[in-house]
What we know:
Chain A is an alpha+beta fold and 400 residues long. Chain A has helices at 82-86, 128-137, 155-166, 171-174, 181-198, 211-222, 232-246, 291-307, 312-316, 380-395, and strands at residues 2-5, 15-21, 28-29, 33-40, 43-49, 53-56, 64-66, 70-75, 201-209, 252-255, 258-261, 267-269, 271-272, 278-279, 282-283, 310-311, 320-324, 343-347, 351-357, 360-374. In chain A, the strands form five sheets. In chain A, strands 9, 12, 15, 17, 18, 19 and 20 form a seven-stranded mixed beta sheet that branches. In chain A, strands 7-2-4-5-16 form a five-stranded mixed beta sheet. Chain A is globular, with a radius of gyration of 21 Å. Chain B has a single domain (3-77), classed as ACP-like (Non-ribosomal Peptide Synthetase Peptidyl Carrier Protein, Chain A), CATH 1.10.1200.10. Chain B has four helices and no strands. Chain B has helices at 3-17, 32-35, 40-54, 69-77. The interface between A and B is medium-sized, with 24 and 21 residues.
Amino acid sequence: xxxxxxxxxxxxxxxxxxxxxxxxxxxxxxxxxxxxxxxxxxxxxxxxxxxxxxxxxxxxxxxxxxxxxxxxxxxxxxxxxxxxxxxxxxxxxxxxxxxxxxxxxxxxxxxxxxxxxxxxxxxxxxxxxxxxxxxxxxxxxxxxxxxxxxxxxxxxxxxxxxxxxxxxxxxxxxxxxxxxxxxxxxxxxxxxxxxxxxxxxxxxxxxxxxxxxxxxxxxxxxxxxxxxxxxxxxxxxxxxxxxxxxxxxxxxxxxxxxxxxxxxxxxxxxxxxxxxxxxxxxxxxxxxxxxxxxxxxxxxxxxxxxxxxxxxxxxxxxxxxxxxxxxxxxxxxxxxxxxxxxxxxxxxxxxxxxxxxxxxxxxxxxxxxxxxxxxxxxxxxxxxxxxxxxxxxxxxxxxx
Amino acid sequence: xxxxxxxxxxxxxxxxxxxxxxxxxxxxxxxxxxxxxxxxxxxxxxxxxxxxxxxxxxxxxxxxxxxxxxxxxxxxxx
Lengths: 400, 78
């Protein structure tokens, strides 16, 4: 028997409210199942349970509960599977008393792939990449019309379906689109104040020639329909995730006086919410996804961040934050680290500027990149290596 | 599609992207991205929606012609 408790969905959460149970007493739950919808300052979050067994004694709806409060009892094996326990990104479950607002998340993050398995019973021809993406986006493959050879479902079909499914708001999320702006402002204030109070930031910045990447991107997009096109942000994301493989010291957490790097690279992608506020949910294993997969994941994430429907693991798992200001943003950004992470990478808008190439001044698209990192966990020398590795990755877009 | 169909299509697509946006407050020549605070992802989704709704394939190089309401009506009515 084990307790299923209110997870800490980020360093800034103190209480949450169950607004819907998606299971009833007596139901069998499996690790990764979404069992409840919890209202937080980040909107309504789909909370996953990483226990195995029969669920019982559900907490009442619409009641404020502290992080760590028991939401339900799970009878049975009661332990997350070894794979979940081994997840390098898993914050220590027992680190702090549950009432502390800084309590480590109680759920053990699982690879997101375990989250949904409803399509396994139907035999569908599908490419491995499409299968993986469908699983991550929760797209039911059985309902898709394949456009590939022999009617096989392709990545594009999955992406199209994901778009369609988000165009009209999904029923379950329709009623809970919102987050309270005042509450979110309060939460951001708490997390950022803690960051500036506790974390000795150091800052580095560089300017990167985005010309090669832009040419590659233009050629990719030229041959594709809008639904399959990529944004520059996807290249920046992948380049950063790949660079972190080489500089792992900047990927992880600083807790209880020690730095704990993470083997998995879960990129927290900063999404500005319409009407104000910000959330940076995880794109799991960003270094291992293809550009097309990352684009689908990003589109899905932005949609769910704004419309509701983020999953609890997406809020607890990020091992670093990336903020990209997009094509209408400022030229550069120096970020504030989201505790207990140890770094945030920022990209400004891509701008045309004079640049020296082989001794000649030419107009090139440039992007400013910055790193804010925790000086307790690393030094500027390491930080510089990360920026250099991101630059190198962007000069070789074929390898992204 | 005539101009009125195109305006309706644009309004419907935008309603899914920026639910609070009010197209009636946007002039013909105003940059929609600025007027409605659309980021790169929003604008790409807008293009996807316009393409699917009109059946017209929109190359990336033509995006600037769809930055304004007047421009996109002309573009899709051709």
